[in-house]
Amino acid sequence: MSTGAEGLYEVLRHVRPLHQYSAKAVAGSLAEHEVTLGMRAVLERLGDGPRTVPQVARSLWLPRQVVQRLADTAVQLGFVRFADNPAHRRSKLAELTGRGREVFAEIHDRELADLRELADRLDPDDIEAAVRVISALTEHTREVARRRGDDHGWSTPGPRPGEEIR
Description:
The chain is mainly alpha-helical. The protein has helices at residues 4-31, 37-47, 53-60, 64-76, 98-119, 124-148, and strands at 51-52, 80-83, 93-96. The protein has a single domain, classed as Arc Repressor Mutant, subunit A (Orthogonal Bundle). It contains six helices and three strands, in the order ααβααββαα. It is globular, with a radius of gyration of 18 Å.
């Protein structure tokens, strides 16, 4: 690689297949719990604490309506419940139930077990550097997209300043 920009482009070229293979790798453990990939993402966000559906939607760059449907299905499966929100009368807080925490922990533990094999072969400093690079690349490309103005159909609002992307 002759420039830093070309190196970052190589990182971007690996992101899509990484995302696709990651989804395929977890599909089995999700299916046995009737959890979709989208629902898994919602459960993960709610594992950090109660959130409104719009907050979860912004953090996942998904339309609110999509996240509402995922949350409603998770409620039907007994993984999520809605509670009163002291900060907003109409916007309920979604939170994991005990069963939801249990199911997500099982899914996440399997994912970590699969990753442990590779983690044991890598230098921890390289892993930390990869997280920093991907994080910086995400922030930069989000800012470039904002500066460009016309979203060409990419109208889903992303995380607001101060909201974590994790």
